[in-house]
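Hi R.,

Here's the chain you asked about this morning:
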Amino acid sequence: MTTVRGRFERFEGEGRTNERGELQWVRLEIEVGSISTMNAQRDAHLLAPDFFDVAQYPTMVFESDTVEVLTSHSFMVRGHLSLHGQTHPYEFHLDVTQPVRGLYGEMRIGADMEGYLRRSTWGLKWNQTLELGGLALSDDVNVRVNIQVTPQSDPNLHQHWELEDNGQSIDFTVRHHRLLRGQLSDVRGWLDMVDGRPQGLQVEVGRCTIEGVSDTLLAGLFGSRTPLAFTSERLTALGDGDYEVSGSGRIGALSVPLTARLSSVRLPQAGRTYIGARVQIDVPASVLTRLRPGTSAASDLRCSLWFSLPAVMTETSQRAQPVLV
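And the predicted structure, written out as tokens:
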């Protein structure tokens, strides 16, 4: 005997995740009449009263009750499957991929579900005895679902992330006459997101060291205050995930307006509690002159860094609800 494979051509569904990207709930509805096994005669029999009886039971529906997180991308989903007029417990294993961007810039996640059922449990008992003995059909059915998920966030979804210092230094570069390298430590702040887009940013740096620059000189620039603090007042989207950020800053004891560029923002996902982003801060030459009275800065200073810090969500207005397509 051989294995017969088929597929359903028409289905829809939706799911819900928590703030860490872990699946919390899922519902699938399949149009039974869309079955195809690449054999018209067999398909017609499957749709008849001997099997699905599609005229009386046109859909099958699964809805989860619980979702067990196995790993950051693996789940055991348990719920109830309604099929052929009967509803019984059912479970399947689900693996998901990392989010990727499609051809048109949309976010997509691959999902692979595997399960098993006995068709007789749902009243699908038709069979025939073969001439040489045995039954024509097995009672066991392997179920596999391969789909893509397109996350659909509520436009009012608001998340406030607190960035926490993890005791590690952040490398950065400074371009002012020449390229200098340094490290930032004791970095804290917060990031506001609305519908997956940055809306507000605050960063405060507790300590700064620069290669080739003495601690005495840095102390003369910054005094006893934290070296750098920045709070955004306006974010302007530039495209391709880049944002121009303008706001108020403080360099040492000097309060000044600053501009920055924010890009490559990565929010925590399942199994990861870090926020990452690339930040570029421009300090005008006029500000540098004010830092060291009696001197004249001939060019602006540009500080570039990539940070990845532990983050804790302290506020959220609503959960994102990915839609299965």
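The radius of gyration is 29 Å.

Let me know if you need anything else.
M.
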